[in-house]
Amino acid sequence: MTESRMNSEAMDNASGGCYVSVNGINLYYETYGETRGVSRPLVLLHGGLGGIGMFAPLMPELSRTRQVIGVELQAHGHTADIDRPLRFEAMADDIAALIRYMGFAGVDLMGYSLGGGVALQTVIRHPQAVAKLVVVSSPCKREGWYPEVLAGMAGMNAEAAQTMVGSPMHADYVRSAPRPEDWPVLVEKMGQLLRQDYNWCSEVASIKSPAMIVIGDADSVVPAHAVEMFGLLGGGKGDAGWDGSGMSISRLAILPATTHYNMFTSPMLASVVTNFLDTPLPEHR
Fold first, then answer.
1. Residues 96, 99, 103, 108, CA torsion sign
2. Do 138 and 212 contact (CB within 8 A), yes or no?
């Protein structure tokens, strides 16, 4: 994610940042877009070591016809760290608590990379909170990453954090974090999280919400695994027929000439996501 530009000041239509206290953490979020006459907001979850500003290039399109709520996860951006490990499950519980606090019966939820794992765990642990799910560049099992990516994750620690000082990612963290000196702590905690083994395939197969899997054709996620996830969600089981009546409620998008590191700035991502969110889908598989 070294090419990210995470400056939330670029998103001029933000209503201003807010905090909500949930599960012992002061969770930071910003709201964008249209709120009147919109049935469901879209909640956005950023990638590791990033923040809401990662989505700045996409925000005008994503928020054109809906309310968008960008959230900064534990120890990221404006959200201060607390005395607990970084875990997908705990961060998912934070998101579900935020949704309840804001009084929404259900939201559309989109997560990229780290945020994709949190989004998956949110719908797995709190299925009633999510109407539609979009998982971008994130696998449902650790082996879904390429081996060289796993090797890089294994090397994330406080020492590696020092080599990243002065990078755009570090600079954005320093600008927004309540305690900029905690950068090594964040990188160390991220490494501890990413070294943990996980396999959520059976849980993904039980998801009932309409879901879209998005990766780039040059992503860090193995394409065959994205197809596997699509199948677990009920997709790719057979021909949909001339009228599309055999189509599942799941969707798969593989964006051309797109990597893990430019995915969140791709206009193609905004286009496929808004089409998925705007299109009525069958209530059953």
1. negative
2. no
- Count CB-CB contacts under 10 A for residue 224: 9
d(CA 175, CA 178): 9
Give which of 133, 116, 134, 131 is closest to 38, Cα–Cα. Answer: 131
- The CATH class that applies to domain 8-237+245-276 reads alpha beta
Contact between residue 189 and residue 26 where contact means Cβ atoms under 8 Å apart: no
Q: Express each pLDDT in 48-107 by its tens digit.
A: 999 999 999 999 999 999 999 999 999 999 999 999 999 999 999 999 999 999 999 899
- Residue 215 bridge partners (DSSP): 254
Q: Given its phi and psi angles, is residue 145 left (phi above 0), alpha (psi -120 to 50 degrees) or beta?
A: beta
- End-to-end Cα distance, the chain: 35
In whole angstroms, give the CA distance from residue 26 to residue 242.
51
- Provide the token pair at 120: 């998956």
Task: State the CB neighbour count (10 A cutoff) for residue 165.
Answer: 11
Decide if 135 contacts 214 (C-beta within 8 A): yes
CA 197 to chain CA centroid, Å, is 19
At what angle are helices 114-125 and 88-101 packed, to 10 degrees?
70
* Burial classification of residue 52, based on how many CB atoms lie within 10 Å of its CB (0-12 exposed, 13-18 middle, 19 or more buried): buried
Maximal CA-CA distance, the chain: 59
The predicted model scores a pTM of 0.93
SS3 content of the chain, % helix, strand, coil (to 5): 40, 20, 40
Q: Map out the domains of the chain as residue ranges.
A: 8-237+245-276
Contact 2, 169 (CB under 8 A): yes
- The angle that helices 147-154 and 183-194 make with each other, rounded to 10 degrees, is 140
Q: How far is the C-alpha of 73 from the C-alpha of 6, rounded, in Å? A: 14
